[in-house]
Amino acid sequence: MKRPLILIGLPGSGKTVVGRRVSRELDAPFLDVDAAIEESVGRSIRDIFEQDGEPAFREMERYAVSTALDGEPCVIAAGGGWAAEGDNLGDAESQAVLIHLETTPREAAARVVGQSDRPLMNGHDAEPRMEELWAARRSFYERAHHAVPTDGRAVERVAADVIALARSSAGW
Ligand code: S3P
After folding, report:
1. How far is the CA of 33 from the centre of ligand 1 (A)?
2. What's the Rg (C-alpha) of the chain?
3. Rounded to whole angstroms, what are the CA distances from 30 to 34, 79, 103, 129?
4. Largest CB tally within 10 Å, which of 15, 21, 42, 172?
5. What proportions of the chain, in percent to the nearest 5, are helix, strand and coil?
């Protein structure tokens, strides 16, 4: 039986681009959690953070992932904070295969620098902020069933590793 795949990792680790490619290759539905929330609420993540607050956003992302896990097997790109919230990991780890796109804070920071759509990065220098997020979340990300390194690697190579894992250990 196919099990859903959930990609986790720092902002800038490539969850969305890799997930989209993997889903295409596996002919599986793709859920980009941030995009799905923006579409259902009709506002950007940044506006949701500003107007409703982070706790409201966290509840939306929890709900989006848990609803997707009840549907047909799919590829899910979680937001960078999802894995570190409440019991999200504990709830998902028996139903899905969790794959950490392992990226050093330095490389993740270099990839997101100049982007204004990540509220947790706003007003911070990218690298120290990413180091902070890594320190706070590392223990959660490392609970993933598998890790795929992304530093210095092309999206296609990272996606190929994820696809190989999907075939070898998630029934795809
Ligand atoms: C967040 C990461 C973002 C988005 C939101 C919060 C985080 O997703 O969910 O801005 O807490 O790290 P990406 O990881 O896709 O940037």
Report:
1. 9
2. 15
3. 12, 14, 22, 29
4. 15
5. 55, 10, 35
Confirm if 8 and 15 have CB atoms less than 8 A apart: yes
Q: Are 84 and 136 in contact (CB under 8 A)?
A: yes
pLDDT digits (tens, 9 = 90+) for 54-99: 999 999 999 999 999 999 999 999 999 999 999 999 999 999 999 9
Q: Say how far apart CA 116 and CA 122 lie, in whole Å.
A: 7
Among 120, 130, 138, 141, which residue has the most ligand 1 atoms within 8 Å of its CB, making it the best to mutate? 120
For residues 4 and 76, the answer to whether their CB atoms sit within 8 Å is yes
Q: What would the pLDDT profile of 92-108 be if each residue is shown by its tens digit? A: 999 999 999 999 999 99
Q: Is the pTM above the cut of 0.90?
A: yes
- Which protein residue has the closest C-alpha to ligand 1 atom 15? 79
To test the pocket of ligand 1, the residue of 13, 34, 59, 60 to mutate (highest count of ligand atoms within 8 Å of its CB) is: 34
